[in-house]
Amino acid sequence: MPKLLEPEQRVLATLNQDGSRRWLRPRVSKGRFLTARRVVAYLLIAIFTAIPYITINSKPAILLDIPAREFTFFGFTFLPTDTLLLALFMLTVFVGIFLITALFGRVWCGWACPQTVYMEFLYRPIERLLEGAPGKKQTVKRASGVRKFVKYALFLAASMFLAHIFLAYFVGIERLSTWVTQSPLEHPTSFIVMVAVTALMLFDFGFLREQVCLVACPYGRFQSVMLDRNSLIVTYDNKRGEPRGKISKRRKKSGDVGLPVVSEADARGDCIDCKMCVTTCPTGIDIRDGLQMECIGCAQCIDACDAVMEKVGKPRGLIRYSSQAAVESGRWRMVRPRVVLYPAVLAVLVSAFVLTLSQKSTADVTLLRGLGRPFMVLDDGRVSNQLRVKVTNRSKETQAYTLSTPLLESAELLVTDEERLTVAPGETQTIDALVLVPAELFADGSVSVSVQVDAGGETIATKKYRLVGPDPDRLRPEDEGEPQR
Asked: Rounded to an integer, what distance in angstroms lies between the CA atom of residue 481 and that of residue 383?
């Protein structure tokens, strides 16, 4: 790249100044946070693997059946008629993310995000096993020959495992088992899907790696509006660490003579500029530059810095989980407007979700006006209205439904296709019906009736419906039998 086009500073942690890819090989810094993250990561991997095999109320714990437009979460199935419920559920998830971010920063990214979990605790351990662990300067010898083949073979096996478990959330474990055990010729489309997902997994964790967090994921860019100065983040204590500088080689003449110390004349901060926090960062940033979009809050720099501080006889915490306000002023406010507002909104959403869910019956019933003529006056003086009853069977068994108008004795309801009254589990039927009402009951051209839907001796739903018709005072005998507009 010409010198005139080279940026003065690095634009992206994974790019060199000449625009070439900077491959990161972060060193592993052992410590209390790495141990905790490792426990959490392998627990999450176990849960992710087990969920497709778990059934609740004879349903998968989670099943996102997109072709059938059915989403099952922990025993409850969202159907296309559950738009309000699904919207409330998604809003609850988003507001919950806002609240967690306001309180704990990007704890999701560093501790629970699948991209971080699998990259740092599955793929990179495989890579270190075959290429060796990087040292302070992140230099490693790339695998070649047999070791390179084994590395990518293990990457492929891991990607196939993740792809199959991932697909189980969308097709179910039984259908996936059928795909796996049968010949690809029997389900070519499904086989292509499995190959494509596996290839995407391999491309993600084998090539894109941390660039997914830096370039593709929008969460880091949202943090500017979700965080405030009191949010918990990984932060460097500038007041304590600056001015940074290499530690003096002089030794104490008494006391702990084994420890190198900084002379009083140097007047330097606690940071010895060892750059261990940089070489251990999985996204390649320098946390000492302040809060950055690339920081995923994994705490590897904390473990690295704490180990260095212990070696030079300084207290831990130069890099720590804290907030910008606490580091600068020593004060941290947990109670602040957004921390009060988010729980309040969350409580409203959860209450609305629970209330709406509690009112759900074993069937969804929608009344629709018939197609064509709005009404017709029959020879016997009654007025006929077309009616469409849309019934979705939410139960686990086939149900036979009956329709009636209990509050208006003079009304008669006729079903044009009685076979549609029987609806299989999870299916939807639209039942065409006619409602016949004496013309003298219409006041100002309309009359209200109640349509009741029963199944198994129980009332499933009672819906109000407005019939349209002529004004009896204006109805002339010669108009009978003709459609009215």
From this structure: 9
